[in-house]
Amino acid sequence: MNATHLLPETPSQTAGPYVHIGLALAAAGNPTREQEIWNEMAKPEAKGEHILLVGRVFDGNGHLVRDSFLELWQADADGNYDSDYDQSKAFNCFARTATTFDASSEWTVKTVKPGIVNNAQGVPMAPHINVSLFARGINVHLQTRIYFADEAEANAADPVLNLIEAVERRATLLAHPCEIDGKKAYRFDIRIQGEGETVFFDF
Question: Can you give the pTM of this predicted structure?
Fold first, then answer.
């Protein structure tokens, strides 16, 4: 009987520092493709409450992660998902964005506030946006959610938020309303590690 020889695992690979070059062409200063999935989910004619999402990403030392790349997936204003991406549509459920290389190092997304969606058991979930975070040093992308601080009643009943046993940590998933250039906006900063670490999910 021949002995079994197991091969060692190969090293994990992170998403950067070249993620911007391949997936965030505009942020990297490169020409964009004809059909580019980027940070405008909602055109002006899209139904719903139009908002701007803005945020930054911090590492465990509190330093800005300037090469972060985010993918966002959400329902439309009526609580429906549409998997077909088409730039000619008024609203697409999927977007990509990246932090800028300037001093602010912010990411932005133009969208509408999502409607309520039921989970697999038929329980209504508060308005939320699903987020995947990629960055240099992260071997497997991190998954989290954006909820809205001004949806307190819906948040209190949300089945996913209620899975977080440390109640105070639920606040790390809340985007807070603000105003940018006279328009309604929400700020959502992500902290990968350390004090105020964002809750990440293992979906």
Answer: 0.90
